[in-house]
Amino acid sequence: MAWPETPPRDLSPVVIIDAFTAQTSSWIYDGSVKQWQSIDGLGLDDPAPLSFRDSQGLQALLAVRIADQFGGDVPAATVAMAGQFLQSLTARFSSPATVSAGVFM
């Protein structure tokens, strides 16, 4: 019996440890582009993982997170956009729906 191949769940993390060199590599599955994205060794010019989902939402989240460091005020619309971006990540809208039979008693 062969198991059906299903795509990984959105935002699934994987850490691979090489037994011979003890080097690790970390990956996260981005369901919106259906690709594994490396999260190791990111440079300043590299695209951020998950940034293709909602680039403006990511910008808003970063603005909210660093506003205190620079003593700035964040507009309410930016805070709302950051919240929507976080909600979209936690809701996993890019994951395939899992259907299960209901049991009623």
Polypeptide structure, described:
The protein is α+β, with helices and mostly antiparallel strands. Among the domains are: 8-39, no CATH class; 53-92, no CATH class. Helices cover 30% and strands 15% of the residues. The protein contains 2 helices and 3 strands; from the N terminus they run βββαα. It has helices at residues 55-70, 76-91; strands at residues 13-17, 24-30, 35-38. The protein starts with 12 loop residues before the first strand and ends in a 14-residue tail after the last helix.
What is shown here, in short?
With 105 residues, the chain is α+β, with helices and mostly antiparallel strands. It has helices spanning 55-70, 76-91, and strands at 13-17, 24-30, 35-38. The protein has a 3-stranded antiparallel sheet with strand order 1-2-3, with no helix packed on it.
Tally of strands: 3
Gap from first CA to last CA: 33 Å
Kindly report the spatial arrangement of strands forming the biggest sheet. Answer: 1-2-3
User: Biggest sheet, in brief?
Assistant: 3 strands, antiparallel
- State the low-pLDDT regions, or none: none
Strand percent estimate: 15-25%
SSE-based structural type = alpha+beta
What is the approximate shape? Answer: flat
- Which sequence of SSEs, written as H and E, runs from N to C? EEEHH
**So what's the oligomer here?**
single chain
The helical percent reads 25-40%
Mean pLDDT: 85
* CA gyration radius, whole angstroms: 18 Å
